[in-house]
Hints:
By secondary structure, this protein is an alpha+beta fold. The protein contains six helices and nine strands; from the N terminus they run αβααβββαβαβαβββ. The strands form three sheets. It has a three-stranded antiparallel β-sheet with strand order 1-3-2. A three-stranded antiparallel β-sheet has the order 4-6-9. The protein has a three-stranded antiparallel β-sheet with strand order 5-8-7, with no helix packed on it. InterPro entries: Ptrans_KptA/Tpt1 (IPR002745), RNA_2'-PTrans_C (IPR042081), RNA_2'-PTrans_KptA (IPR022928), RNA_2'-PTrans_N (IPR042080).
Amino acid sequence: xxARRTVKVSKYLSRHLRHQPERIGLTPDPGGWVxxxxxxxxxxxxxFPFTREExxxxxxxxxxxxxxxxxxxxxxxxxxxxxxxxxxxxxxxxPYLYHGTVxxxxxxxxxxxxxxxxxxxxxxSADRETATRVGARRGRPVVxxxxxxxxxxxxxxxxxxxxxxxxTATVPARYLRLPDxx
Length: 182
């Protein structure tokens, strides 16, 4: 499977497992899981056929581990805009986490903090390098430090997804260290 096809199948899976399962007739269970055979059949019926081998390759090759497979089912590890309960237990975060963004969002972030936007949670990274890669997807990256230790002490709840992404409902601006200029 070539790199272009891998990306195309991965994006298709993300779109339909995270955001628009109904577009191809899927109904995920409350945890976001769908039967793999049902997914493959639905994709083929809607003009995007792929094989189980291609799906397995995309799951295994994805360096961000965007998808989880279990007992003949698949789901996105996080990033849903549809209602799901990933069943992740609350965990104590490290003292600092990081968020990658771009300069054009800094004014809103200073005013409102980090909000989940169309997702269920704000996504945070355990290290600056990962946050830099996340921010770079939309332009020149800006990395914000999040005082997750203080947030946790103040009652904010954190979860960590199967692929290591830290999740929290929101990050109020007072817990952010933003760059002075950009």
